Amino acid sequence: MVPADHSQVAKKNYLLASLPDKEFERILTHLSPVSFDLGKVLYESGDRLDYVYFPTTTIISLLYIMENGATAEIGVVGNDGILGIALFMGGDTTPNRAVIQSAGSAMKMKAADLKAEFTLGGVFHNLLLRYTQALITQISQTAVCNRLHSLEQQLCRWLLLSHDRLDSDKLVMTHDLISNMLGVRREGVTLAAQKLGTRGLIKNVRGTITVLDRQGLENAVCECYSVVNAEYNRLLGRGISRTFA
Amino acid sequence: MVPADHSQVAKKNYLLASLPDKEFERILTHLSPVSFDLGKVLYESGDRLDYVYFPTTTIISLLYIMENGATAEIGVVGNDGILGIALFMGGDTTPNRAVIQSAGSAMKMKAADLKAEFTLGGVFHNLLLRYTQALITQISQTAVCNRLHSLEQQLCRWLLLSHDRLDSDKLVMTHDLISNMLGVRREGVTLAAQKLGTRGLIKNVRGTITVLDRQGLENAVCECYSVVNAEYNRLLGRGISRTFA
DNA sequence: CCCCCTGTGTGCGTTTTCGCACACACAAAC
DNA sequence: GTTTGTGTGTGCGAAAACGCACACAGGGGG
């Protein structure tokens, strides 16, 4: 039996929320809530996936770890999506680490249950594939942005991606953490964050960045951000961006 | 009726070649050969996809074009895969341009036929999804490589990716073309190519780069290359790399 | 045969980011 | 209230790429 409040919690995840009632009810019976602390590693590179996760309030970062220990984020999953696409794509695993970037909750689902639901075809199957395409666009734009844009622009993009997936304007994250995500030096992040602070867009205080002027950030960000949002909007029927929501 | 030689030509594409006989024969009836010149644009960003393509000897580049005209490659498709995954992923289109990076041939298939085959589920459906996951890994490593590695390493990676997808050691491409793919200056490519030439790995002559020492290139390349190859190998049952083949 | 076009080589100064070294600063713990 | 740690500010020189300018070179077409 599913506790009544699970339904409300689960609907915080846009993917689940966009399911027709019938499918939603069925999927719901396979879901159970979990919560995670900052830094928790959900999948290690190459791990077999026992569960997939539909974030409700947490944000998960997909990272690649180089042999020399350097890291770079390739994408981010929040209440817009699902962690564990490799399972239904047929690979069972990926060469990436999945780590909690912002503490919070998710609904988890057993790998076997997800595979069974996916195999049924239909709405859920198609929704997962469309989400995967949106994620591909996000990863693609990360590649482009890494190549062509300044650290400051990338920081804006990253802050907006996080802000979109949170209820609060307070992002609990150190410059050091962000530098690992962006694959740059910590000092570089500090410098860029200072510039944004001077312009009144954000406030930097030990361990948290507060978004003060969301519109200002959107003006400062590169086109990569809106390209990704437009695709989420087009493919999943609603934008994840707070602006477009 | 399908000409007899179509079958042999089609099998140059690894994806088609790995289909069981029954599926292969059925798919084959939907395929017809085409050939393309260098620079031909198959899809423009946002275009509706009328056909998908299974390259046999051509190589296709997936590019993002910035508003200011700057370009960067996000992935490459050759005889290892299929161009047009957005079709079965449910998006019908992507924000990228697909352009011929190396002249040659492909088998084309009508969008509607592909969708119908995909919807049947089964082997073809699963194969396309596994290929898509391999492509995701390729795009992911492009993002990582763009962030963390030197131009010279990236050039090595790019040359190997091309070499893997060609029969010849002669890559017909100018430094300028490569610079557009890598999203860097033409001069930067010239400089990096000179260094590789000095080390005897390649030979640079007006408009073509000849691979002289494949093993040497593999020693010079970053880990990104082997990560992608390992995934292709794992997901699709054989490596695309000439080394692993 | 010479011209012209495209592709390549080279040389600047400039900008961005890096790598390292440290000083400072806040907050919880003792 | 002092200590201890973690997070942030700052200042170099070095390295990698950039933007621009232009010289040269090969090869096909007039």
**Taking strands numbered 1, 2, ... along the chain, how are they ordered across the largest sheet of chain A?**
2-6-4-5
Subunit arrangement of the protein? homodimer
Major pleated sheet of chain A = 4 strands, antiparallel
Beta-strand proportion of chain A: 15-25%
- Find the structural class of chain A using helix and strand composition: alpha+beta
How many β-strands of chain A, per DSSP? 10
Question: What is the 3D shape of chain A?
Answer: globular
Distance between the termini of chain A: 33 Å
H/E topology pattern of chain A? HHHEEEEEHEEHHHEHHEEHH
Binned, the helix content of chain A reads 40-55%
- The radius of gyration over CA of chain A amounts to 18 Å
Low-pLDDT windows of residues of chain A: none
Number of H- or I-type helical stretches of chain A: 11
